[in-house]
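Review form for a predicted model. The reviewer records the input and the model, then writes brief findings.
Reviewer: anonymous (R2)
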Amino acid sequence: MLQRSKPPKSHRPVFTLPTYKEIDVGLSKPAVLFEKPDCETLKIEVVFKAGSARQAKSLQAFFTQKLLKEGTVSFPDQGVNYTTDLHGGYLVCGSTEDTTSVALYALKQNLNELLEVFFSVLTEPVFEQKAFEREIDVERNHFLVQTQKNSYLSALAVKAHLFEPESLYYSKLSVDDFDALKREDVQAFFSTQYNLYEADVILAGDVNLEQIKNIQDRFFKAVSSRAFKQSEPLKKVLLQKPNEIFIRKKEAIQSSIRLVLPCIDSHHQDFFKLKFAVMVLGGYFGSRLMANIREDKGYTYGIGAFVKSLTQQSYVSISTEVGIRHTRDTCKEIFYEIEKLTQIAVSQEELHRVKNYYLGQLVRNFDGVFLHAEMYKKCTVIQQEFSYYAQMYDAFKNMTSEDVLETSQAYLKADKVTQIIVGEA
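Model under review:
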C-alpha cells in the first residue's frame, strides 16, 4: 500500500560537468562551444561587460541594448527584425547590473544569412532618433504602470538603500530619468562599453567546420573594423548602514517586504555553505520561511530567500507580499527564523531533504546544451571558472548540520539587515 506519510526512497543524482571546445575568434579569450550533434539549432551569444554598473546616467545600459535591433547601417529601420524572422531566427538582447548580452538562435541551414544580421547589430547600430523617442515613450508608460505595484517599488528601493549614492550598483530611478536621457548618451555608452575584443563568446548546438570558419572570419573582421574607446574604471562598492525603510502607499491592500543583507562573494571559502544555509531558510517550497509564514500563519502565498551574486558584491535577499494587517508580524517571524537558524542545528532529516533538492536542482540546470551555455555565462559574470559548479556540488553533498549552524552564526546577522516595506504598516 502506498505510504503517503513517508517520502519515497531517493537516489542522489550523479553530476558530470559538461565539456566544451575552445575556438580562437581573435578576441582576448577563446570562444567556447558546447556541442550537440544533429541539433538543428545553433545559439551564439556575445556577453559584453556593459551592465548598468558602468553607466554614467540612469537607463543608459537598458536603452542601448533595447535599441540594438532597431536599425543598423546595413539593416535600417525594421530590417534587423524582418530579416531575422524571414530566416527563422531569433535575436534577443538583455542587460543586467554587470553585463549586456546579445544572443542569436539560428537554424543551421540559415546560419550564414543570420550571421550577417547578428554582426551588423554587434558593430553598426545607428540608434535612430525616431526609434529612440518611441522606445522612451513605451518604457516611460510601462514604468508609470509598474510603479503602482508595491513589489516593483520595493525592488527599486533595494539598490537605493543598500548602496551609497556614489557607490557601484547604486540606482534610484524616477520618471524624470526617461526625459533626461538623450540619444547621444546611448551612442556614447555603446562606443565606450561594447568592447567586442574583451567580450565572452559562447556557442551551443551543432556547427560544422565551414560554419566555424565563417564565424571566426566575421569576428576577426568585426574587431579590426572598429576602434574601441577606453571606458572609465569602475567605482568602488560602498554600503549604507542597515536601516528600516518604510514607503507608504495609500489604500494599499498588501505590503511588499524585502530584507537585504550584504554578504561574502562567490570567491570566499564559505560561500557555498552560505548558499546552503539560505536555502534552508527560504530557498525552496519546504523552507523554514514557507513552513512558518505560509503554511502555519497563512500570511502569504509565497516567500523566498536567495543569494544575489554580482561581480563586485553579493547580498542575501528575502521577499514576500502580505496583507497589511500582517506586515509587522511577518517581519517579526522572518527575524525569528533567522535567529533560530543561528541557534539550533538543522536535523539530519531536514539536511538530507535540502541536499536532495539542491543537488537535483543543480543537475536540472544542466539539462540540455543550451542550459550548459547559460550556466557557463553565469559563472563568467561572477568571474569564476566552469569548475565552480563541480565544486558547488561537492560542497553541498558534504554539508553538515554543524556547517549550517556555524555559517548562519557567522553571516546571517539580524543587526546587519536593511528592511524595506512598501504599503501600510
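Findings: The chain is about 40% helix and 15% strand.
Further findings: The chain has a mean pLDDT of 93.
Recommendation: see findings above.
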